[in-house]
Amino acid sequence: MRKRKQRQQGYVLIVVLVMLTIAPLLSVGIVRRSFDQSVAAAKRADELQQRWGEISLRHTVLNRAEILLRTAELVEGVKQPTLQTTVKLGNRTFYLVLSDEQAKLNLNTAFRNGNESAVRASLFEGAVLWPIRLRPDPRATANAPYPPAFASWGQVYDFSIFANMPEKNYLQLMQLGERITCWGNGQLNVNRADNDTIRTVCELVAPPQSVSALLELREEHPDWNFERLMREVDVPDRDRRAFRRVLTDRSRCHALWTLTSDTNRSWARLDVKTADANDIETFYW
Fold first, then answer.
1. 112-150: b or e for each residue (b if 16 or more CB lie within 10 Å)?
2. CB-based burial of residue 240 (10 Å sphere; 0-12 exposed, 13-18 middle, 19+ buried)?
3. Cβ 148 vs Cβ 137: under 8 Å
4. Which listed residue, 23, 88, 119, 233, has the most CB atoms within 10 A of its CB?
5. What is the pLDDT of residues 249-270, one digit of tens each?
6. pLDDT tens figures, 71-119
7. What residue segments make up the domains of the chain, in order of their start?
């Protein structure tokens, strides 16, 4: 009986020693798991903050794009095709660029009034940050508005170099859309576009001398509205009709670039909204 009791006491001692050995390991595992869960929860909260920040800014800015641009024009006294600002929400910094897409050269307009050669010729010097790789929609044809030949930058440029960059330059990415666009109805806002863009677009449909006459009249009378400009420009009626096909004084398509950054990395987002469509096209990098 004494030996059995001693054995039981020995087993109890061994179990106690094992538990004393395992307990710290279990504690470390629990602490590590709690830490991992805390990190994951913080990451999800951070991502949620970023997402809601982007959605809130998109709703606030893009839905009031034309109002914001016109207000800036009244304040500054000059036409404003773009607006830039920086917003800080929590530990996130959002750099915003709002633009009037109809103040830019539309590559689909170039395609409809020419071909791929016209598109290449329309790409301004300095706009090509990556190799051009034109991949128009095979269903697109000249003089047909739908489907558009180009619906995203992926059909215009080769982004493989950008994808493989260890340190991505998102500001360069955003510069792709400074003077050209794939969105909108193809008409150019004659009030906001610069002379080079107007000349490039109008020479697709009218002779250079008629385009020069239009630009000279526009410079002489910057306060004239579009209808008066069309009435007074001294060009043949066929050229006046051609101008009306590619020009307008109203903008119904706007884009918002959002560059988000924290202490570790950056993200880029492009939202494009057309007034005639309910959906907003969104692209991420």
1. bbbeeebbeebbeeebeebeeebebeeebeeeeeeebbb
2. middle
3. yes
4. 119
5. 999 999 999 988 776 777 889 9
6. 999 888 888 899 999 988 777 888 999 999 999 999 999 998 877 888 8
7. 51-284
